[in-house]
Amino acid sequence: MSSTMLALILLCVTFVGLLLLRFPIALVLAASTIVAASVVDLPLAAIGQQMVQGLNSYTLLAIPFFILAGHIMSEGGLAVRLVNLAQLFVGMIRGGLAMVNCVACLLFGNISGSAAADASSVGSVMIPMMKKKNYDADFTVALTSAAAIQGVVMPPSHNMIIYAVAAGGVSISALFMAGVVPAFIMLIALMITAYFIARKRGYEKAEPVPLREVPRIIRDGFLSLMTGVIILGGIFTGWFTATESGAIACVYAFILTFFVYRDLPLRHFIVILGKTFRTVAMVFFLISTSQAFGWILSYLKIPHMVTEMFLSISDNPYIIMLLINILLLLLGAPMDMAPLILIMTPILYPVVTSIGIDPVHFGIIMILNLGIGLVTPPVGTVLFVGCAIGKVTVEAASKALIPFFFALCAVLMFITYVPEVVMWLPNMMAGR
Predict the structure, then answer these.
(1) How far apart are CA 199 and CA 194, in angstroms?
(2) Where are the beta strands (DSSP E) in 240-304?
(3) Percentage with pLDDT > 90 across the chain
(4) Which pLDDT score, from 0 to 100, does residue 408 have?
(5) For residues 299 and 426, what is the distance between their CA atoms, to the nearest angstrom?
(6) CA 191, 196, 197, 203 torsion: positive or negative?
(7) In sequence order, what are the residues at sequence separation of 6 or more whose Cβ sits closer than 8 angstroms to the Cβ of residue 347?
(8) Residue of 318, 322, 320, 330 lying closest to 351 (CA atoms)
(9) How far apart are alpha carbons 299 and 314 in whole angstroms?
């Protein structure tokens, strides 16, 4: 047996074994890389150089800014204001609170960029409210969890930045623009599914909003949404880059939360900074170890072998993309989203480019696909957040989630095979 084949086997065994032992994924990646490198006599210093190189990117500066802006807004009363704004426009539909939940998650995702933050912030408001209005607890949790996935597709999503880095410099601005239309398609699909379930279960419309409250609700909602407008508007017009938009969004979120709304005392900003630093440290350590892991994969020619494997099955792009989607759906169930983006992008990127798939288009496919994994047991992070808030068992919530799961998969297939819906905004921005 050659040293390369032995290294490949030990890489897989170490990776799977440590995952089963529930080691942190960053340590799993580092340990697997060291084991494989030692077999093929690569110096450990080279691994350290790759880890440093993984963080040596100006693009990564956008991640701390977006995480900080999301923490500032989620710590305040933003979720309540967005729920009120959503209720003003869709609360009159049957199952109105379910519609409000879907829209509020989309609006909050436009600011937080995180499905987990979406589920915890909007869910802490909507789940008790819906249960109080006699909505079934399992439906409420399932809907909130599914709707929160909009946060990983609707910009600004730090997962898009992670994909851009892993793919070797895909435009973050193009990814942000590409996520807008699919996010709204997800919203429509979830609202239609929720509407039919609401009719079947006999849920009523939401209570009408008093007219005297309308101006205040619109004003507060508009000010809250300006964070997303600043980010997308600045990028779309070319006034500033994604990193600069993140910095400006932080300043705006800070002023709005602490000086306009005054939701929090100024001293609480230290707590927010602490949470941001912990999150950024985990993300950056994961990125650095993933860079080294991707390097050893390339050295062992694993991306080339995977490309040849897919092309040996079929040379039809539709069939290959179907197989890739199935693979990612299966992997998304037991593993978290960010590590999978960093691990699978270097492996699948040569496959999709060889069959003519645009890297931006594939980025949105991968992010939505792995986002669905966030509500799929056994490691459905977002589903667990919803169950904790709604005090519902994972089994009950998973059963109620089935219609929404199929709705999200239908959207995934749609954006996979109709690339125009994904690429329309990026192409328009590029003048094509």
Answers:
(1) 9
(2) none
(3) 20
(4) 95
(5) 33
(6) positive
(7) 297, 302, 303, 306
(8) 320
(9) 26
Contacts 24+ apart (CB under 8 A), 213-216: 213/84, 214/88
Can you state the angle between helices 172-201 and 394-417, rounded to 10 degrees?
A: 130
> Do 94 and 199 contact (CB within 8 A), yes or no?
yes
Report the alpha-carbon distance of residue 34 to residue 30 in Å, rounded: 6
Closest by Cα among 157, 63, 160, 149 to 112: 157
Round to whole Å and give the CA distance between 149 and 72. Answer: 20
Q: Are 69 and 228 spatial neighbours (Cβ–Cβ below 8 Å)?
A: no
Question: How many helices (H) and strands (E) in the chain?
Answer: 21, 0
Q: pTM of the prediction?
A: 0.85
Location of structure tokens 């239908």: 410
What's residue 432's pLDDT?
56
Report yes or no: 291 and 54 within 8 Å, Cβ to Cβ. yes
Identify the pLDDT of residue 187.
94
Residue type (1 letter), 259: F
Provide DSSP, 149-206: THHHHSSS-HHHHHHHHHTTS--HHHHHHHHHHHHHHHHHHHHHHHHHHHHHHTPPPP
> What are the φ/ψ torsions at residue 315 (nearest 5 degrees)?
-105, 10
Sign of CA pseudo-dihedral 111, 114, 115, 117? negative
- pLDDT tens per residue, range 31-77: 999 998 988 888 888 888 888 887 877 777 888 888 888 788 777 76
Q: Is the pLDDT of residue 418 over 90?
A: yes
Q: How far apart are the C-alpha atoms of 47 and 431, rounded to whole Å? A: 41
Give buried/exposed letters for 333-358 (b at 16+ CB in 10 A, else e).
eebbbbbbbbbbbbbbbebbeebebb
Q: In percent, how much of the chain has pLDDT > 70?
A: 98
Tokens of residue 76, six digits: 């305040």
For the purposes of burial, counting CB atoms within 10 Å of the CB of 133, is it exposed (0-12), middle (13-18) or buried (19 or more)?
middle
C-alpha span between 167 and 366 (Å, rounded): 12
* Section 164-188 average pLDDT: 89
Cβ proximity of 104 and 86 under 8 Å: yes
At residue 430 the predicted structure's pLDDT band, cuts being 50, 70 and 90, is low
Q: What is the DSSP letter of 334?
A: T
Give the pLDDT score at 323. 92
What would the two tokens of residue 257 be?
């939360």
Residue type, 285: F
Residue 69: its H or E element: helix 62-75
Report how far residue 41's alpha carbon sits from residue 36's, in angstroms, rounded to the nearest whole number.
9
